[in-house]
Amino acid sequence: MQYRTGCGGEALSALGFGCMRLTRRGTGYDRKKAEREIMLAVKGGVNYFDTAWAYAGNEALLGQILEENQIRNRIYLATKLPHYLIRTSAGIESTFQGELKRLRTDYIDYYLIHMLNDELAWEKLKKKGIEDWIAEKKASGQIHHIGFSYHGSSAEFRNVVDAYDWDFCQIQYNYMDENSQAGRAGLAYAHEKGLPVIIMEPLRGGRLTGMLPAEAKRCVEKSGRSAAEWGLRWLYDQSEVTVVLSGMNSVDMVAENIRIASGSAPGCMTEKDRAFIKILKRAIARNVKVGCTGCGYCMPCPKHIDIPGTFRCYNEAFSEGKGRARREYLQTTAMRSVTSSASQCVKCGKCEKSCPQHLPVRRYLSDASKVLETPFYRAAKAVVHLGRFY
Known about the structure:
alpha/beta, 8-stranded parallel beta barrel, two-stranded antiparallel sheet
């Protein structure tokens, strides 16, 4: 196993175990199956395990497995505060204590503010006393390192990084998201600030493996490597990446990912490899509806619309499936203090004057709104607007 430097010089396995995707059975999890997968990972050198309050039943499952196999002191444990459900200072503490109880531990190594997508959300947490609370928890040893996970726009990422003296951060990043969400620029900025960066969605929840378009699958089949290996090696090649989380849910997947991580250090990609990734990206992008490069020249929008983010989700709806695209669009545009939905467009035309691709942005925003803003989306946005999540 390759190891990279985490907070305080800790040696973190390049491959982390994202527990969200452990196999479910009915209303719960297949505990025995999960235990086999987790123990194989630990045996293979994986020492970073990620869960969250929001993954129903996941913390309790992981806590039971860690306790019964007496491996808590062999791993670094990460979980998350669902700030979008916190209404009072007391709510922060009670939520955290509930997590400790479910995880059967008295400390969290890497604690994250979950989906901290803009600076305004942080300002609201500050009013609830989050800074003093973090200081007290770190002083007591109940939290070793504090960070945040991010699903917001590229433009807002720096503001969140600079809003507090974070120890680390977690971003969605893969070869198809190189210029969206935090993106490569955000990765570089966090690294420049000295933050270890944990990567989530390295294979877009399987969309860059088993759910590839036919042309992309043919490219991979001829390459001599699996789709997963291409996606993971692309990340491991970058020295700014600390841990790559994989949502592993089979022993075969665990074994393959350990093999890939063990042989993939920074600089592992050749120029030929990088050229292949470009070919693969083009094959995946054949079905895109909008030729947006994510450059951001159209921003900021006077109505706060995340134009590049909207077009990315709109394209995903046709290249990777509407279900995932709509979930991501909900996360990145509605679950924030100032919503950034395509339907907020007033057709002022400012974006089109700045677009180097000369795209009909207003028309595309209207098209995207019809596909992405379902009745469920509008209901969720209304709840956020009423302040019930903040």
